[in-house]
Amino acid sequence: MSWWAKGLIFENCMCTLVCPGHMHFSQLCTHERCKGYWALRFDDGACGAVSLRGQRAFIVFDSPQRMIDGGWTQRLIVDPIATADQRAALETILLGRAGGPWEKLHGFVATDLPTEYRPIEMSDEGETKRASIADRLQTIVSQIRGRDKTKPVLFENCFNQIHASTQVIALGDTEYKDEAITINTTQTHGLFSNFDWKVA
């Protein structure tokens, strides 16, 4: 299946300012478990004939300290604005069934919790990204200050399956809870970038 997508991705997890697992899954994360999320805003894209424009989704995860060891638990949450076809397309892509970066990432997942369909609110204020999910999540991610306060602090040429090669370093606060995963962070690892994925 061919698909492509462009948009915004931001994240927050329990690690200190730079998550070691973000640099490489073989590195030890800050705590015995790494819990966090990836927030996705699809500005454009298509899966086959199904448009992805305007869709919003979250992947919430719980992984071991050494992420490469696998055994992750994760949950996909999709905004119910998606049609039945769009829901199926987002599940196909983000649960690793359609190739590309999410197929590689899903290789570390042992347990997919049932997909939920809940209203997702996102705002992009440039230096700050915010999101909320009804009865589930509140989060804010803000870029850190550099020497030149007019510019973000960046990772450049950083290899990552789902982010762009240039990523803005940030700090985040998150409260999330479902029956399997609980996340509480204050000023911990955050990032954001503009993704551009394509599978021919």
Unreliable sequence segments: none
Kindly state the mean pLDDT as a whole number?
Answer: 97
Q: What composes the largest sheet?
A: 12 strands, mixed
Outline, from the CA principal axes?
globular
Question: Into how many domains do the coordinates divide?
Answer: 1
| Beta-strand share of residues | over 45%
Cα end-to-end separation:
8 Å
Helix and strand topology:
Blueprint: E1 3-13, H1 20-23, E2 28-47, E3 50-51, E4 56-66, E5 72-78, H2 84-94, H3 101-106, E6 109-117, E7 120-124, E8 128-133, E9 137-143, E10 154-155, E11 167-177, E12 182-199
Parallel strand pairs: 5-6
Antiparallel strand pairs: 1-2, 1-12, 2-3, 2-4, 4-5, 7-8, 8-9, 9-11, 10-11, 11-12
TL;DR of this structure?
This protein is mainly β and 200 residues long.
Structure report:
This protein is mainly beta and 200 residues long. 10% of the residues lie in helices and 55% in strands. It has one domain. The model has no long low-confidence stretch (mean pLDDT 97). The termini are close together. Strand 11 and strand 12 form a beta hairpin. Strands 1, 2, 3, 4, 5, 6, 7, 8, 9, 10, 11 and 12 form a 12-stranded mixed sheet that branches.
Please supply descriptive tags for the structure shown above:
200 residues, 12 strands, mainly beta, twelve-stranded mixed sheet, single chain
